[in-house]
Amino acid sequence: STAFTNILTREDGGVGIITLNRPKALNALSTPLMTELNDALAQYDRDDGIMAIVLTGSEKAFAAGADIKEMRELTFMECYKKEFITSWTKVTTTRKPVIAAVSGFALGGGCELAMMCDIIYASHDAKFGQPEINLGILPGAGGTQRLVRAVGKSKAMELCLTGDMMTAQEALAGGLVAKVVPAGESTVLEEAIKTAKKIAKKSLPSVMMVKECVNKSFELSLAEGLHLERRFFHAAFATQDQKEGMGAFVEKRKPSWTHE
Ligand code: CAA
């Protein structure tokens, strides 16, 4: 695969693992880093050997936000002309599931990037926040929108207006994260990989359809969402994996997916 300089990639049991790797800058999300991240996601999405993706950072920071040093001198016209940050959404169009394994700071664009992922696991010392207000700006990659949907209006307003950070436990209570991994034997990355490997053993068409339906629940009315789900459910009966999955159940054996 391509040689990257701002991220690291490795593969393990059907799982593609992407590590943001600008530790000295707390993984500040520079344009070169985001370009590499987009490329890595696209490669894994195309790769038939990859069934799920884990996105992680360092122990100290998942990502401390957009790169302030890069943004400092930007003008409105530069932002506007090059559609600054608009290309950051590759995670949301990746069709295989993406799990964020968050240790340390997930701030600003870092929190927003984690929220673009399908599942967030947090280490006990993870901290989430939207501190843009302290820089004289506001969140620009979905913070005011996805945080509301994740933790509700009051908590989202509090975080975006004060710039304060939320602990992993608060994020769990609010529903932003699916699991907090306590200090101990296994790390948040190991737990995320374990879950990704579990998903990697399922039928890929089913996995992709679930992901698409759940994500559409944010865009559609309930009636439209239920209609979409019903049509995908019907479509699942066109897959070989449906015959295999139900056949295996009735014959009391493990299914052997062809992902078709
Ligand atoms: N951009 C660029 N560099 C950053 C950075 C960022 N977002 N966050 C940290 N760094 C750099 C620091 O400048 C510092 O570099 P130097 O060693 O060259 O001085 C290095 O990373 C280590 O950071 P600190 O010394 O500040 O570490 P700390 O442990 O004292 O503090 C922190 C950690 C509280 C996370 C602090 O670094 C911080 O507040 N960072 C900025 C967080 C922020 O405001 N994020 C929002 C960015 S705007 C955005 O993301 C817009 C959007 O919606 C897309």
From TrEMBL:
<dbReference type="InterPro" id="IPR018376">
    <property type="entry name" value="Enoyl-CoA_hyd/isom_CS"/>
</dbReference>
<dbReference type="InterPro" id="IPR014748">
    <property type="entry name" value="Enoyl-CoA_hydra_C"/>
</dbReference>
<keyword id="KW-0443">Lipid metabolism</keyword>
<dbReference type="Pfam" id="PF00378">
    <property type="entry name" value="ECH_1"/>
</dbReference>
<dbReference type="GO" id="GO:0006635">
    <property type="term" value="P:fatty acid beta-oxidation"/>
</dbReference>
<keyword id="KW-0276">Fatty acid metabolism</keyword>
<dbReference type="GO" id="GO:0004300">
    <property type="term" value="F:enoyl-CoA hydratase activity"/>
</dbReference>
<comment type="similarity">
    <text>Belongs to the enoyl-CoA hydratase/isomerase family.</text>
</comment>
<dbReference type="GO" id="GO:0005739">
    <property type="term" value="C:mitochondrion"/>
</dbReference>
<protein>
    <recommendedName>
        <fullName>Probable enoyl-CoA hydratase, mitochondrial</fullName>
        <ecNumber>4.2.1.17</ecNumber>
    </recommendedName>
</protein>
<dbReference type="InterPro" id="IPR029045">
    <property type="entry name" value="ClpP/crotonase-like_dom_sf"/>
</dbReference>
<dbReference type="InterPro" id="IPR001753">
    <property type="entry name" value="Enoyl-CoA_hydra/iso"/>
</dbReference>
<keyword id="KW-0456">Lyase</keyword>
